[in-house]
Design goal:
By secondary structure, the protein is an alpha+beta fold. The protein contains 17 helices and 7 strands. Helix 6 crosses helix 7 and helix 12 crosses helix 13. It is flat and about 80 Å long. The structure holds flavin-adenine dinucleotide.
């Protein structure tokens, strides 16, 4: 038993009390395999080490990405301006007194995955990224709610407003969602879209003309802009640490976020964060984006569902009737329960419930 406890402390130096470097040296894989299964797996991963990018390779990678404009919507983009840190900066912060050391990428991977899985978030604040983004104002309004970033935005008091508005193609108009008051439903018919798009164009043209004529008449730019539409593009530098960026991406890549900002978040994540921080990105997808969070109530529903299925010798996917019999007692008397709906969706995604064919 003593052996196991000591080995655990050696495995995870972040929470271990201060020790000398010699004491912290990683035990051999053979010793690890004698320990708890989780640490045996960590050891297996660590044995398959690769080399990190050299400083020169990293610089070349960053330079290749820097200022590359990844298009979003019809006239927007995201681009990398600067980055501080890489996957190993997070590891370095976690193993605060270790320095660069001689550890391999696979060691980093094990630790980063552990940190992200257990929401040990501060090491991720050690990396920072600065972007330049071009975004329509309606989207930007949602974006700037994320207070943990630093922003410097194009000023329409000093300069003429950017002469570009986000337009919607005839086949891109969406109906109001029936089940979610905040969201979109199905695509609207294209004939209807054609008229919406042409109406949009004449409105945007007119508002731009009014703006330009105010400017030509000598109205101050800060006042002339007030009737520009929310579809007008703005540009800004946006700098944020990796922890808060992942929080932004988790919220804004999610299906509950508006499609337009989702496209920006996805471009930031897939085009820029993924290549710069591949291990963090992989962990983020595994433990945040593609993970299922089960509440106490959800777990109890699953337990009741499985117990009743075992008694009937039934295999999944189970029916809606089975689900309703196993639901939380507090939901049972309700015609509509958002929590029950969320639980149902999770169980469908896990393959435990039938997915109705509409
Ligand atoms: C799908 C969706 C729908 C939304 N709908 C609405 C809506 O209808 N109306 C609306 O007003 N907003 C809405 N929002 C915005 C939302 O409420 C948040 O303001 C936004 O997502 C920023 O999140 P955040 O505060 O966690 O992020 P950040 O501002 O980046 O903050 C990150 C974290 O830092 C901490 N933090 C930052 N500032 C403070 C502070 N002052 N005090 C304490 N802790 C702090 C918090 O832990 C916070 O989670 C919506 C967001 C989403 C994703």
């Amino acid at each position: 038993m003593t052996f196991v406890v000591i080995t655990v402390m050696l495995c995870y130096p972040v929470t271990a009390p201060a020790k000398t470097v010699k004491q912290r040296r990683r035990p051999t894989c053979t010793i690890f395999r004698l320990c708890l299964p989780e640490f045996a797996q960590m050891a297996t991963n660590e044995c398959h080490g690769e080399d990190r990018l050299s400083a020169e390779q990293r610089l070349a990678q960053v330079n290749q990405l820097r200022w590359q404009k990844f298009p979003v919507l019809d006239d927007g983009f995201v681009c990398l301006v600067d980055v501080m840190g890489d996957d190993s900066s997070i590891v370095q912060a976690a193993r605060v007194s270790y320095g660069e050391g001689t550890r391999k990428v696979s060691d980093d991977r094990t630790l980063i995955r552990y940190l992200l899985r257990h929401r040990h978030t501060t090491p991720f604040e050690m990396a920072e990224i600065k972007f330049l983004v071009r975004v329509p104002m309606d989207c930007w309004r949602q974006w700037v709610r994320h207070r943990t970033a630093n922003i410097n935005e194009y000023s329409t008091r000093y300069s003429l407003a950017i002469d570009a508005s986000q337009t919607t193609q005839a086949d891109q108009w969406r109906s109001q969602a029936e089940s979610n008051r905040q969201g979109s439903g199905q695509a609207l018919p294209e004939v209807m879209g054609q008229s919406l798009t042409s109406e949009e164009k004449s409105l945007q043209d007119q508002l731009r003309r009014v703006y330009q004529s105010r400017i030509d008449t000598g109205v101050a730019r800060e006042q002339a802009r007030k009737d520009l539409p929310l579809s007008t593009y703005t540009e800004a530098y946006w700098k944020i640490d990796l922890h808060n960026l992942l929080h932004f991406l988790a919220l804004r890549m999610d299906s509950h976020a508006q499609l337009e900002i989702r496209q920006y978040a996805t471009a930031l994540g897939e085009k820029i964060v993924a290549p710069l921080f591949p291990i963090v990105w992989e962990s983020f997808l595994d433990y945040r984006m593609n993970a299922t969070f089960l509440t106490r109530l959800d777990s109890a529903v699953i337990q009741r569902l499985m117990a009743s299925a075992a008694a009937k010798n039934a295999a999944p996917p189970y029916s809606e009737t089975d689900f309703l019999s196993a639901q939380d007692p507090a939901w049972a008397g309700m015609n509509r329960s958002r929590e029950r709906d969320e639980c149902r969706t999770k169980l469908q995604n896990l393959g435990l419930l039938e997915i109705p064919i509409h």
